[in-house]
Design brief:
The protein is α+β, with helices and mostly antiparallel strands. It contains 21 helices and 23 strands. The protein folds into five domains: about 10-125; about 195-320, Beta Barrel (Elongation Factor Tu (Ef-tu), domain 3); about 330-475, Threonyl-trna Synthetase, Chain A, domain 2 (Threonyl-tRNA Synthetase, Chain A, domain 2, 2-Layer Sandwich), CATH 3.30.980; about 485-560, no CATH class; about 580-685, Diaminopimelate Epimerase, Chain A, domain 1. Helix content is about 45%, strand content about 20%. One of its GO terms (molecular function) is ATP binding.
């Protein structure tokens, strides 16, 4: 390191955070060694994403604070092995693999860092003085190169420039809405990616070749089990903006870019399009973010924000957002597993009616004769789990459509397909599925599909169905998540199940306090709302909802029973005090207006000729009022008028019927209210 030696300094004494950097690197390299040995590699989702961020943070402290050359992090692995090897013998066996993985990821990140620095330098040089750094460039650094936002801020701060935070947050919000389904980039409404018929006809008349998108399938599993996506070199054939084809588009404009070839997946077959960026060959410091991709008449249109002018004939290199692509691949393969599992559990008559695959989740619509039961949901998940654990190879091949349609038990939506067509088969090679009289497709998932898929089912890791409902009679929709999200959903389910068990145990205890039972009833109500909205396994949600419904009934019944007992006790005391008198006006303790009304009802039931008005002062300073008039005195004597007269005296409000009424007021006027109650009653009798 080209930094001062470690001195154990902290806080303000640690100038330049040098000592902190030593501690960060030491801590992070230990974490990396143990996690990689346990089979968790830097990746794009769940624990893998956390580890990737830890590695990148360590690399930043090595290069920026400790000023160390590349390779420092991996060079510390032998020391970690020496310190922890006795406790974790696996470290000794895997030391070389750990170093390779750290070095590979460090090199990739340092390359991104260097490219990011060049982009910032170039952008700053072209900026007008005293202006904010463009949000579009910062967003492309953040989204495309994986640049941490705090690093962007730090680099800009060093140059005395600030980021246009409001515009950046707006881009982040748009992206979040798009991912949530609120904004569908590339939809027909998007004029930059939807070719109009005249433009499409012109391209075809001019013999502009259709885009070769076969490179989208060019990916492989690396040495350490990670997916590797190669960049693709292409030529800009034409640009499209405001429903017209163009040879050039100016800086800052959003447009559609038509290329001769691409490795980007265009939205089709229910799978979301890729995102990523492109750079011009020989110009590494300018990123053109690709926000969506659409297929129109054989031409793949990339929706791009032109940071600089783009022209037909430009040579570009394309980089897909690997995290987003891998997440879509995972969810698409999981969709095929789910389709197979539903048919296995619900019967072969279960047909797919539609699906949508995004990086966040998958949606699947299918025929059903009724509601899917808790047991069936559990069975479906179990079938999927079994296929994941078998780590079946995902076989893919293009075959003539006529040959493909002869496959027995082929699972596919009834729609038009290209010829030749792509077959995706789990665990069984496509050539075996195509042989005469083969029933292999009846025993596994075989579908016609143009989507991108995992190469082995084990990479799905887990699947949890988090929603199931009937869209219309006969068609159900399930939503599922995979990998780390599925694990999180199960953890949420377990936490909520523990809370429900805790409430159930407390409900079984003998509770004699009304407030305590009311609080328990409220807790059940709040828990019911949480369970209804939480991302958790649907089968477990249904189970907990059944339990909570029963608990709510039990709690409500218990509250009513306790209130009735308290009311009976108070009524007995008052009856003994005012035996057979035509009017009872008094104050009594009562925890709620409901209990006070029950006391009044009890008195009138046991003494039918008596009219009753009771006040109950509360700790808050409020006074509750409840009254009931004997039917013998109606309509001359109205309970509603009686309550209004009394509560008005206490600066409160009241209402009700001629027989029964209730209200409330302030304790300062309670004595005058009691006097008013008696005078009002006497005037009516």
């Amino acid at each position: 390191c080209r930094a001062p030696r470690y001195q154990g300094l902290v806080g303000d004494a640690d100038i330049g955070r040098v000592n902190m950097a030593y501690r960060v690197v030491a801590d992070h390299v230990r974490t990396l060694c143990v996690c990689i040995t346990d089979g968790i590699y830097p990746g794009f989702t769940g624990a893998e994403l956390v580890l990737r961020r830890i590695l990148r943070r360590a690399v930043r402290f090595c290069s920026e604070v400790l000023q160390a050359p590349p390779g420092l992090l991996a060079s510390l692995v032998p020391t970690v092995v020496e310190v922890l090897g006795d406790a974790y013998p696996e470290l000794t066996r895997n030391a070389n693999q750990i170093k390779d993985i750290i070095n590979d990821n460090e090199a990739a990140f340092l390359s991104s860092l260097e490219r990011g620095r060049r982009i910032i330098e170039r952008t700053v040089q072209q900026m007008e003085p005293s202006t904010n750094f463009p949000a579009e460039v910062a967003w492309s650094l953040y989204g495309s190169l994986g640049f941490p936002l705090d690093l962007i801020d730090l680099m800009l701060e060093e140059k005395g420039i600030s980021l246009d935070s409001a515009a950046f947050n707006e881009l982040a919000l748009e992206d979040a809405k798009r991912k949530a389904g609120g904004l569908q980039a590339g939809q027909p409404g998007n004029t930059n990616t939807h070719l109009d018929v005249h433009s499409l006809a012109w391209l075809q008349r001019s013999n502009v070749p259709a885009t070769d998108d076969s490179p989208k399938y060019a990916y492989r599993l690396g040495q350490h089990g990670q997916y590797e996506f190669n960049p693709c070199q292409a030529t800009v054939l034409m640009l499209y903006r405001d429903q017209s084809l163009r040879k050039e588009v100016g800086a800052g404009q959003r447009c559609g870019v038509i290329l001769d070839r691409t490795n980007f997946y265009a939205e089709q077959g229910g799978q979301d399009s890729d995102q990523g960026y492109m750079i011009r060959l020989g110009q590494q410091d300018v990123l053109f973010p690709v926000e969506s991709v659409r297929l129109c008449g054989g031409y793949v249109i990339h929706e791009v924000t032109a940071v600089e002018a783009l022209r037909a004939g430009d040579q570009v290199q394309l980089f897909v957002d690997e995290a987003q692509r891998l997440a879509c691949m995972t969810n698409h393969t999981a969709t095929h597993l789910l389709n197979f599992a539903l048919r296995r559990v619900l019967g072969d008559s279960t047909e797919q009616r539609g699906s949508h695959v995004t990086a966040e989740r998958l949606r699947f619509d299918f025929d059903t004769k009724g509601h899917v039961t808790v047991e069936q949901l559990q069975q479906v998940e179990q079938v999927v789990q079994d296929l994941i654990q078998k780590n079946e190879v995902v076989h893919m091949a293009e075959v003539p459509l006529t040959l493909a349609r002869r496959v027995q038990g082929l699972r596919a939506v009834d729609e038009g397909y290209p010829d030749p067509v792509r077959i995706v088969s789990l665990g069984v090679p496509v050539e075996n599925v195509l042989t005469c009289d083969s029933e292999a497709a009846m025993q596994t998932s075989v579908e016609l599909c143009c989507g991108t898929h995992l190469l082995q089912t084990g990479s799905v890791e887990d699947l949890a169905i988090i929603s199931e409902r009937q869209l219309v009679k006969g068609i159900s929709r399930v939503i599922a998540v995979t990998g780390g999200q599925a694990k999180e959903a199960r953890e949420v389910g377990q936490c909520l199940a523990t809370e429900v068990d805790s409430v159930s145990l407390r409900m079984k205890q003998r509770i004699t306090s009304i407030p305590e039972m009311q609080n328990l009833s409220k807790e059940v109500g709040q828990l019911t709302k949480v369970v209804a909205n939480a991302a958790m396994p649907q089968w477990q949600r249904k189970e907990l909802q059944t339990i909570l419904k029963a608990l709510q009934r039990t709690a409500n019944t218990a509250v009513k029973k306790l209130e009735l007992q308290q009311a009976e006790k108070a009524a007995q005391i008052l009856l003994a005090k005012y035996s057979n008198q035509p009017i009872i006006i008094d104050t009594v303790p009562a925890d709620s207006l409901s209990i006070l009304m029950k006391v009044v009802n009890q008195l009138c039931d046991k003494s039918p000729g008596t009219s009753v008005l009771l006040l109950s002062p509360q700790a808050s300073g409020e006074v509750l009022c409840a009254c009931q008039v004997s039917k013998n005195f109606v309509p001359t004597f109205s309970a509603a008028d009686w309550a209004v007269a009394v509560c008005t005296q206490m600066e409160g409000k009241a209402g009700g019927s001629p027989i029964v009424a209730k209200g409330s007021g302030n304790s300062r006027g309670m004595q005058e209210a009691l006097t008013t109650a008696l005078e009002f009653a006497q005037s009516k009798l």
